[in-house]
Amino acid sequence: MSEHNGYDRVAFEFSGGLPALTASRVPAVYADPKGTPVTLAGQSSLRVVFRGASGVCPRPLHRTWTGPSVLTPYYPELLVVSAAGDFEGYLSFGIGLAAQGSYHLFTLTSPDRVVIDVSHLALGKFPGIWDITSWPQYWTQQYSWRNGHQPWLASPLMVIRAWASSRWHATPVIDQVSAGTFKVTEPAGKVDTLTGVRPVDVPGPWVITKIAYGSS
Q1: pLDDT per residue over 44-61, tens digit each?
Q2: Is 115 helix (H, G, I), strand (E, B) or coil?
Q3: Residue 43: which pLDDT band, with cuts at 50, 70 and 90?
Q4: In the chain, what are the domain boundaries?
Q5: How far apart are CA 65 and CA 86, in angstroms?
Q6: Where does 2-119 sit in CATH, by number?
Q7: Closest by CA position to 14, among listed 111, 116, 115
Q8: What is the DSSP letter of 35?
Q9: In what order do the strands lie in the sheet with 2-4?
Q10: Are 24 and 105 in contact (CB under 8 A)?
Q11: What is the pLDDT of residues 154-213, one digit of tens each?
Q12: Is 52 left (phi over 0), alpha (psi -120 to 50) or beta?
Protein backbone atom coordinates (compact mmCIF):
# COMPACT_ATOMS: atom_id res chain seq x y z
CA MET A 1 0.00 0.00 0.00
CA SER A 2 1.16 3.53 -0.70
CA GLU A 3 -0.07 7.12 -0.83
CA HIS A 4 0.58 9.24 -3.91
CA ASN A 5 -0.26 12.68 -5.22
CA GLY A 6 -3.95 12.43 -6.07
CA TYR A 7 -4.47 8.72 -5.38
CA ASP A 8 -3.78 5.81 -3.02
CA ARG A 9 -2.65 2.36 -4.11
CA VAL A 10 -3.10 -1.19 -2.86
CA ALA A 11 -1.34 -4.07 -4.61
CA PHE A 12 -1.96 -7.83 -4.30
CA GLU A 13 0.98 -10.04 -5.26
CA PHE A 14 0.60 -13.60 -6.56
CA SER A 15 2.81 -16.52 -7.51
CA GLY A 16 1.93 -18.94 -10.31
CA GLY A 17 0.14 -16.41 -12.50
CA LEU A 18 -2.63 -13.89 -12.10
CA PRO A 19 -6.10 -15.03 -10.97
CA ALA A 20 -9.38 -13.78 -12.40
CA LEU A 21 -10.62 -10.67 -10.64
CA THR A 22 -13.91 -8.97 -9.88
CA ALA A 23 -14.21 -5.71 -7.98
CA SER A 24 -17.40 -3.81 -7.24
CA ARG A 25 -18.67 -1.04 -5.02
CA VAL A 26 -21.10 -2.49 -2.50
CA PRO A 27 -23.21 -1.17 0.40
CA ALA A 28 -21.47 -3.63 2.74
CA VAL A 29 -18.93 -6.44 2.55
CA TYR A 30 -19.74 -9.89 3.92
CA ALA A 31 -17.23 -12.63 4.67
CA ASP A 32 -17.20 -15.76 2.51
CA PRO A 33 -18.61 -18.34 3.32
CA LYS A 34 -20.29 -17.41 6.63
CA GLY A 35 -21.81 -14.12 5.49
CA THR A 36 -20.78 -12.19 8.59
CA PRO A 37 -20.30 -8.44 8.07
CA VAL A 38 -16.74 -7.25 7.52
CA THR A 39 -16.05 -4.06 9.46
CA LEU A 40 -14.60 -1.23 7.37
CA ALA A 41 -14.15 2.49 7.80
CA GLY A 42 -15.30 5.27 5.50
CA GLN A 43 -18.32 6.10 3.39
CA SER A 44 -17.81 3.62 0.55
CA SER A 45 -16.81 -0.04 0.27
CA LEU A 46 -15.22 -2.18 -2.44
CA ARG A 47 -15.49 -5.95 -2.53
CA VAL A 48 -12.57 -7.56 -4.34
CA VAL A 49 -12.65 -11.27 -5.25
CA PHE A 50 -9.85 -13.28 -6.84
CA ARG A 51 -11.03 -16.52 -8.47
CA GLY A 52 -8.52 -19.35 -8.52
CA ALA A 53 -6.41 -17.98 -5.68
CA SER A 54 -5.75 -18.74 -2.04
CA GLY A 55 -3.68 -17.43 0.81
CA VAL A 56 -2.71 -21.02 1.72
CA CYS A 57 -0.12 -23.11 -0.14
CA PRO A 58 -0.96 -26.85 0.06
CA ARG A 59 2.56 -28.26 -0.50
CA PRO A 60 4.01 -27.87 2.06
CA LEU A 61 0.98 -26.55 3.92
CA HIS A 62 1.62 -22.97 4.95
CA ARG A 63 0.07 -19.54 4.74
CA THR A 64 1.51 -17.34 2.01
CA TRP A 65 0.62 -14.16 3.91
CA THR A 66 1.71 -14.04 7.54
CA GLY A 67 0.82 -10.41 8.23
CA PRO A 68 -2.37 -9.09 9.87
CA SER A 69 -5.79 -9.83 8.37
CA VAL A 70 -6.69 -6.12 8.56
CA LEU A 71 -4.53 -3.18 7.44
CA THR A 72 -5.52 0.35 8.43
CA PRO A 73 -3.34 2.90 6.61
CA TYR A 74 -5.92 5.71 6.90
CA TYR A 75 -4.65 7.39 3.75
CA PRO A 76 -6.77 10.25 2.31
CA GLU A 77 -8.96 7.76 0.38
CA LEU A 78 -7.74 4.23 1.21
CA LEU A 79 -8.66 3.62 4.85
CA VAL A 80 -8.93 -0.11 5.54
CA VAL A 81 -8.12 -3.35 3.69
CA SER A 82 -9.59 -6.43 5.36
CA ALA A 83 -9.59 -10.13 4.53
CA ALA A 84 -13.12 -11.26 3.67
CA GLY A 85 -12.78 -14.97 2.93
CA ASP A 86 -10.59 -17.72 1.50
CA PHE A 87 -12.91 -20.52 0.42
CA GLU A 88 -12.94 -23.02 -2.44
CA GLY A 89 -10.63 -21.02 -4.67
CA TYR A 90 -12.18 -17.63 -3.97
CA LEU A 91 -9.99 -15.14 -2.11
CA SER A 92 -11.96 -12.08 -0.99
CA PHE A 93 -11.17 -8.68 0.49
CA GLY A 94 -13.09 -5.64 1.63
CA ILE A 95 -11.71 -2.15 1.12
CA GLY A 96 -13.01 0.83 3.07
CA LEU A 97 -12.81 4.19 1.27
CA ALA A 98 -13.26 7.73 2.54
CA ALA A 99 -15.59 8.68 -0.34
CA GLN A 100 -17.01 7.40 -3.61
CA GLY A 101 -14.19 8.55 -5.84
CA SER A 102 -13.15 6.65 -8.95
CA TYR A 103 -10.88 3.60 -8.88
CA HIS A 104 -8.68 1.95 -11.50
CA LEU A 105 -7.56 -1.70 -11.70
CA PHE A 106 -4.58 -2.99 -13.65
CA THR A 107 -1.91 -5.71 -13.51
CA LEU A 108 1.86 -5.73 -13.30
CA THR A 109 4.38 -8.52 -13.82
CA SER A 110 7.71 -9.57 -12.32
CA PRO A 111 6.24 -10.26 -9.81
CA ASP A 112 2.59 -10.75 -10.76
CA ARG A 113 0.44 -8.14 -9.10
CA VAL A 114 -3.10 -6.78 -9.23
CA VAL A 115 -3.10 -3.07 -8.46
CA ILE A 116 -6.04 -0.89 -7.41
CA ASP A 117 -5.60 2.87 -7.48
CA VAL A 118 -8.30 4.90 -5.74
CA SER A 119 -8.55 8.60 -6.50
CA HIS A 120 -8.52 11.21 -3.77
CA LEU A 121 -11.79 13.08 -3.40
CA ALA A 122 -11.70 16.31 -1.41
CA LEU A 123 -13.81 16.11 1.74
CA GLY A 124 -13.20 19.67 2.85
CA LYS A 125 -11.92 20.83 6.20
CA PHE A 126 -12.94 18.55 9.05
CA PRO A 127 -15.68 20.33 11.04
CA GLY A 128 -14.95 18.93 14.50
CA ILE A 129 -13.26 21.22 17.03
CA TRP A 130 -13.22 19.08 20.19
CA ASP A 131 -11.80 15.61 20.85
CA ILE A 132 -12.07 14.51 17.19
CA THR A 133 -10.51 17.24 15.09
CA SER A 134 -9.24 15.69 11.82
CA TRP A 135 -10.37 13.24 9.14
CA PRO A 136 -7.72 10.58 10.01
CA GLN A 137 -8.76 10.77 13.65
CA TYR A 138 -12.42 10.53 12.68
CA TRP A 139 -11.90 7.44 10.50
CA THR A 140 -9.95 5.79 13.32
CA GLN A 141 -12.78 6.49 15.77
CA GLN A 142 -15.42 5.44 13.26
CA TYR A 143 -13.68 2.10 12.67
CA SER A 144 -13.35 1.54 16.42
CA TRP A 145 -17.01 2.49 16.91
CA ARG A 146 -18.10 0.07 14.16
CA ASN A 147 -16.22 -2.65 16.04
CA GLY A 148 -18.37 -1.99 19.10
CA HIS A 149 -16.13 0.36 21.04
CA GLN A 150 -17.43 3.56 22.67
CA PRO A 151 -20.98 3.30 21.29
CA TRP A 152 -21.83 6.57 23.04
CA LEU A 153 -19.85 8.50 20.39
CA ALA A 154 -22.88 8.31 18.10
CA SER A 155 -25.13 10.03 20.67
CA PRO A 156 -25.07 13.86 20.52
CA LEU A 157 -26.16 14.12 24.15
CA MET A 158 -23.44 11.73 25.33
CA VAL A 159 -20.78 13.65 23.39
CA ILE A 160 -21.95 16.90 25.01
CA ARG A 161 -21.80 15.21 28.41
CA ALA A 162 -18.25 14.02 27.69
CA TRP A 163 -17.26 17.58 26.78
CA ALA A 164 -18.83 18.87 29.99
CA SER A 165 -17.12 16.22 32.15
CA SER A 166 -13.77 17.26 30.65
CA ARG A 167 -14.36 20.74 32.15
CA TRP A 168 -16.23 20.17 35.42
CA HIS A 169 -16.49 17.41 37.99
CA ALA A 170 -20.19 18.09 38.53
CA THR A 171 -22.51 17.38 35.61
CA PRO A 172 -24.07 20.66 34.45
CA VAL A 173 -27.63 21.13 33.26
CA ILE A 174 -27.86 20.21 29.57
CA ASP A 175 -30.85 21.16 27.44
CA GLN A 176 -31.28 20.07 23.83
CA VAL A 177 -32.82 22.90 21.82
CA SER A 178 -32.67 21.29 18.38
CA ALA A 179 -31.35 18.17 16.67
CA GLY A 180 -27.79 19.46 16.74
CA THR A 181 -27.77 22.26 19.32
CA PHE A 182 -27.47 22.11 23.11
CA LYS A 183 -27.49 24.65 25.94
CA VAL A 184 -25.12 23.85 28.79
CA THR A 185 -25.50 25.73 32.06
CA GLU A 186 -22.14 25.92 33.77
CA PRO A 187 -21.90 25.46 37.58
CA ALA A 188 -21.25 29.23 37.87
CA GLY A 189 -24.42 30.02 35.92
CA LYS A 190 -23.07 30.85 32.47
CA VAL A 191 -24.95 29.26 29.58
CA ASP A 192 -22.88 27.88 26.70
CA THR A 193 -24.28 26.88 23.31
CA LEU A 194 -22.78 23.87 21.54
CA THR A 195 -23.53 22.73 18.01
CA GLY A 196 -22.50 19.54 16.27
CA VAL A 197 -23.05 17.22 13.32
CA ARG A 198 -22.34 13.76 12.04
CA PRO A 199 -19.76 14.74 9.40
CA VAL A 200 -20.56 11.88 6.98
CA ASP A 201 -23.74 10.45 5.49
CA VAL A 202 -23.20 7.02 7.05
CA PRO A 203 -23.38 5.88 10.69
CA GLY A 204 -20.54 7.02 12.90
CA PRO A 205 -19.50 9.37 15.69
CA TRP A 206 -21.11 12.78 16.21
CA VAL A 207 -18.73 15.72 16.63
CA ILE A 208 -18.90 19.17 18.18
CA THR A 209 -18.46 21.88 15.54
CA LYS A 210 -19.04 25.12 17.46
CA ILE A 211 -18.91 26.32 21.05
CA ALA A 212 -20.30 29.72 22.01
CA TYR A 213 -19.41 30.49 25.59
CA GLY A 214 -22.04 32.50 27.45
CA SER A 215 -21.81 35.27 29.98
CA SER A 216 -23.17 35.40 33.52
Answers
A1: 999 999 998 887 777 777
A2: strand
A3: very high
A4: 2-119, 135-212
A5: 12
A6: 2.60.40
A7: 111
A8: -
A9: 2-4, 7-14, 112-119, 103-108
A10: no
A11: 999 999 999 999 999 888 999 999 999 999 999 989 999 999 999 999 999 999 999 999
A12: left
